[in-house]
């Protein structure tokens, strides 16, 4: 192999590795087709293209393939004048692939250069996927015949093996009959062979007397319609078999003569091999592009599912944000404890006087008078923890529902380990509790830092910081007037103003606004982290599927490298 040829070989190996690594696990419309195409393309690269490109001068392999009962085994046996491939009465007839070659070529085929994934045996009549190697001096050196299983076998393993062998053929001998030549399955494979550039010859077998005048023209017409007008067509009449199950020599003479001439002509043999190799290499580009598009579709589906989960948790963050803005977190127990702390009364009469009195009471408290602040702090904590837990549970349910509407998402949810995604994490309560406690400590630190030298020694006590911190938390929890009902409007609104006025009395208007904003942003940042951790459960479920987001880009680049190498180093005898 020359240096340029080595470049093509290297590009094939690169593409092969990318195809082997590509996965299409999500049930998208083309996923099954893409998986089969990737597997088949890797197989052809391993079984044929890479080893054949390394030895273009090696013996030619002609694979006899066709439908069940087409007479492939009988045809191969008749060509070598010996029952080397046993055909049974039960369908499917061919049980193991049989390769017949001249004794001088046995080393090449026996060393598993082509079809390296198949085992080798010299025992005829075997079963399974081992390739039975049989030597025959009747065959001209330079060409081997391989009797493949039926391409429409009732056994899937036989069909898969047949396609694998045909993909490794330098020359496909398509064997059909006067009765079966119009069947759909063989024509699908013939079209694939055409698209790959595989050299093909058609053998019309078991033609009854007088039927060739009608069948042969129709078969030629079909070949033309499928872009195969130039392929050789050999007609084998229906004849009585001899004691060994062989056709008379004259029945297969035209086909045998052509194969002998092909084997004897190194130039013609090389032309066929290079035609098939070049055609197969050319077909890799479109296949690689299609598989790259399929990989992109898998990555896009993962991205859509990830976005659906992230959107659910962004909605949860917004719910917390709105809860702070509309005062929903300041209801119930929190409001009750605040009232106990600052006192209650009719709000609508003498609001300004009451604010003054509440402010005086809290300033007095800051100076050292004890107040029941721990109950308020606990109520704030409990209410916020409960709210965070509820919104996390809603987000999990929303994300799962969004996934269930998509086939890809439903498939992910059906995988092991995803049963708990529809609810919040089992430890969400503990983590939310820790979040709130950490936030409360952060609020107290804000107050402590802001106080500095503004407070007298008495005001700078730990109790003073706690009391002012509670006021700041209340200001965050009731950032704007909400819309409760009845007397709650007066009480809640008044207490919010009271908290703000107390803070303003100590820190000033601008400082209070800044502190409240900092405390609020700190809380929302912690909530974002908490919900980000919850969303990562969905991210982990997607990661476990095994979709590589960069696979499409690498496949496309590898296919482009094959194209470039083929153009830079056209295979001799092939189409550039």
Question: In terms of topology, how is this protein built?
Answer:
Elements: H1 3-21, H2 31-54, E1 60-66, H3 72-80, E2 98-101, H4 106-110, E3 120-121, E4 131-135, E5 143-147, H5 156-167, E6 171-177, H6 184-196, E7 199-207, H7 212-225, E8 232-237, H8 249-264, H9 266-325, H10 332-342, H11 351-366, H12 373-404, H13 407-413, H14 428-451, H15 462-477, H16 488-507, H17 509-545, H18 551-568
Parallel strand pairs: 1-5, 1-6, 2-4, 3-4, 6-7, 7-8
Antiparallel strand pairs: 2-5
Helix pairs in contact: 1-2, 1-18, 2-9, 9-12, 9-17, 9-18, 10-12, 10-16, 11-16, 12-13, 12-14, 12-15, 14-15, 14-17, 15-16, 15-17, 16-17
Q: What can you tell me about this protein's structure?
A:
- There is one protein chain.
- The chain has 576 residues and is α/β, with parallel strands linked by helices.
- It has 3 domains: 119 residues, no CATH class; 207 residues, Rossmann fold, CATH 3.40.50.300; 173 residues, no CATH class.
- It has 18 helices and 8 strands.
- Helix 9 packs antiparallel against helix 18 and helix 15 crosses helix 16.
- About 7% of the residues have low confidence.
């Amino acid at each position: 192999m020359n240096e340029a040829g080595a470049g093509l070989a290297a590009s094939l190996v690169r593409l092969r590795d990318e195809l082997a690594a590509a996965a299409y696990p999500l049930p998208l419309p083309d996923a099954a087709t893409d998986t089969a195409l990737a597997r088949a393309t890797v197989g052809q690269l391993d079984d044929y293209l890479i080893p054949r490109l390394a030895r273009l001068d090696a013996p030619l392999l002609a694979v006899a393939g066709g439908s069940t009962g087409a007479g492939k085994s009988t045809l191969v046996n008749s060509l070598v004048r010996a029952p080397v491939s046993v055909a049974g009465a039960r369908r499917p007839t061919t049980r193991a692939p049989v390769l017949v070659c001249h004794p001088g070529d046995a080393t090449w085929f026996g060393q598993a250069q082509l079809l390296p994934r198949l085992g080798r045996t010299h025992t005829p009549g075997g079963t399974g996927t081992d390739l039975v190697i049989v030597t025959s001096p009747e065959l001209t050196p330079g060409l081997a015949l391989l009797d493949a299983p039926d391409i429409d076998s009732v056994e899937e393993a036989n069909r898969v093996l047949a396609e694998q062998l045909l993909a490794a053929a330098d020359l496909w001998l398509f064997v059909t009959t006067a009765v079966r030549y119009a069947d759909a399955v063989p024509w699908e494979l013939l079209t694939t062979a055409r698209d790959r550039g595989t050299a093909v010859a058609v053998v019309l077998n078991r033609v009854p007397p007088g039927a060739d005048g009608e069948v042969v023209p129709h078969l030629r017409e079909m070949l033309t319609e499928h872009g195969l007008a130039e392929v050789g067509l050999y007609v084998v009449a229906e004849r009585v078999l001899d004691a060994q199950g062989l056709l008379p020599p004259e029945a297969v003479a035209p086909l045998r003569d052509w194969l002998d001439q092909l084997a004897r002509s190194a130039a013609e043999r090389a032309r066929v091999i290079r035609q098939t190799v070049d055609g197969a290499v050319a077909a890799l580009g479109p296949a690689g592009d299609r598989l790259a598009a399929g990989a992109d579709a898998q990555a896009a589906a993962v991205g859509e599912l990830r976005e659906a989960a992230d959107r659910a948790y962004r909605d949860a963050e917004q719910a917390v944000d709105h809860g702070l803005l509309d005062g929903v977190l300041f209801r119930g127990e929190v409001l009750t404890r605040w009232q106990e702390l600052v006192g209650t009364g009719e709000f609508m009469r003498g609001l300004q006087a009451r604010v003054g009195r509440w402010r005086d009471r809290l300033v007095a408290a800051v100076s050292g008078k004890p107040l029941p602040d721990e109950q308020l702090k606990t109520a704030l904590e409990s209410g916020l923890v409960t709210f965070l837990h509820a919104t996390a549970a809603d987000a999990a349910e929303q994300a799962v529902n969004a996934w269930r509407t998509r086939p890809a998402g439903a498939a992910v949810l059906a995988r092991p380990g995803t049963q708990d995604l529809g609810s919040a994490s089992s430890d969400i309560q503990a983590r939310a509790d820790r979040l709130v406690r950490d936030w409360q400590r952060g609020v107290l630190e804000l107050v402590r830092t802001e106080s500095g030298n503004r407070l007298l020694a008495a005001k700078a006590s730990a109790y003073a910081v706690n009391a002012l911190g509670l006021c700041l938390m209340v200001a965050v929890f009731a950032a704007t007037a909400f819309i409760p009902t009845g007397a709650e409007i007066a009480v809640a609104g008044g207490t919010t103003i009271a908290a703000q006025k107390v803070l303003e009395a100590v820190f000033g208007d601008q400082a209070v606004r800044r502190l409240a904003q900092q405390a609020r942003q700190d809380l929302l940042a912690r909530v974002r982290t908490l919900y980000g951790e919850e969303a990562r459960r969905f991210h982990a479920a997607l990661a476990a599927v095994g979709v590589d987001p960069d696979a499409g880009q690498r496949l496309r680049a590898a296919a482009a490298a094959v194209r470039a190498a083929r153009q830079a180093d056209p295979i001799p005898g092939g189409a550039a």
